[in-house]
Amino acid sequence: MSLNQDKPLVVAGVEYQSRLIIGSGKYKDFEENLSALEASAAEMITVAIRRVNLGQNKDEPSLLEVISPERYTILPNTAGCYTAEDAVRTCRMARELLDGHKLVKLEVLGDQKTLYPNVTETLAAAEILVADGFDVMVYTSDDPLVAKRLEEIGCVAVMPLGAPIGSGLGIRNPYNIRMILENASVPIIVDAGVGTASDASIAMELGCDGVLMNTAIAEAQNPVLMASAMKKAVESGREAFLAGRMPRRLYASASSPIDGTFF
Q1: In which band, very low, low, confident or very high, does the pLDDT at 170 lie, cut at 50, 70 and 90?
Q2: Rounded to an integer, what distance in angstroms lies between the CA atom of residue 234 and that of residue 238?
Q3: Which of 7, 26, 105, 148 is catalytic?
Q4: 207 CB-near residues (< 8 Å, 6+ apart)
Q5: Is 232 annotated as catalytic?
Q6: Percent of the chain beyond pLDDT 70?
Q7: Which residues have a Cβ under 8 Å from the Cβ of 52 and sit 6 or more positions away?
Q8: Which residue has the higher pLDDT, 131 or 100?
Q9: How many angstroms separate the CA atoms of 226 and 195, rounded?
Q10: I need a surface site. Which of 109, 133, 145, 159 has the fewest CB within 10 A?
């Protein structure tokens, strides 16, 4: 299957041509964030409601004044929440700020040192939010059983970590990601841990439906150039997955076989 025969990424009934989602934290200003967003060709940008102004602080510049919700899908997230109660409250605030917007990224963290997901609180929050009519994209551990349970609850996308948030360590457990993919019927999007373009490509070569990243772009020496690199990495990784890689072999296999040679 060639790339132009590929199906688009579909999240909550909406088609996206880009399989890259970027964040809005750690940039020097909104303008740099917009430049990186444009270079990445991403169509969705995630926003930490507790850290980025979307209009809740009337006396401060709003991200929406620079990055248009008419052009991009704004994905409010619950970064900084450590309980299901706080996460649900944050999502409801986002819905009010964005005029009934239902698509949210749920993340409930366990502690400030690892930023590892608190799975128990995440499951509880997911159940409440889905019942309340939200379309939930959920950040979670790379546990295949937990990922399947979140899908069963009704989350529209499951987002296992590649490595801890902001670590840049890349995909530490590709085997768990593959198990999640084998049992999934909703998009699986690697979220957290990507450090450079090769990490994004590996995630896509595994068969993931997309990659979400923030720090890898925002903390690069040249964020806009890195955003462009990530765009290409996601596209090439997807092409490689669709093409189907050659089998791994223990011994050599000549590129030019000797069978049929003249002498």
Answers
A1: very high
A2: 6
A3: 105
A4: 178, 181, 241
A5: no
A6: 95
A7: 24, 25, 63
A8: 131
A9: 10
A10: 133
